[in-house]
């Protein structure tokens, strides 16, 4: 289960009020350690803020501190708000990508990845 899914389970079903404003790059997020089985290097932490969680999927803000972790992805599209990282694709094998503010990426459910974050990475994601 992804860190994003765990956050949604902890938060329950939530929706950002219509017309409400969230300062994505600056909103405070509460970090938790990455589970030991996912941590590869350093002591990475992640944080999650749901903006919309419904039967149709999730929209939220996710952040990872410096360090390296492995993950199993969900179907999502995300936009990087801040940070510097590399994502390696283990399965299926693909060329690694470098993330920077403005990067837009699509991931498929089941992809096995390794995230190496050099500067805290914050993204807005849409999962369906």
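Sequence proposed for the structure above (128 residues):
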């Amino acid at each position: 289960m992804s860190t994003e899914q765990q956050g949604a389970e902890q938060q329950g079903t939530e929706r950002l009020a219509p017309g409400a404003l969230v300062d994505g790059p600056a909103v405070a997020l509460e970090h938790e350690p990455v589970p030991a089985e996912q941590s590869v290097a350093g002591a990475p932490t992640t944080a999650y803020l749901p903006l919309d969680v419904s039967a149709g999927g999730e929209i939220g803000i996710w952040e990872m501190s410096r360090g390296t972790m492995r993950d199993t992805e969900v179907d999502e599209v995300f936009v990087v708000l801040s940070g510097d990282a590399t994502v390696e694709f283990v399965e299926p094998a693909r060329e690694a990508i470098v993330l920077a503010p403005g990067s837009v990426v699509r991931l498929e459910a089941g992809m096995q990845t390794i995230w190496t974050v050099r500067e805290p990475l914050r993204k807005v994601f849409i999962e369906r």
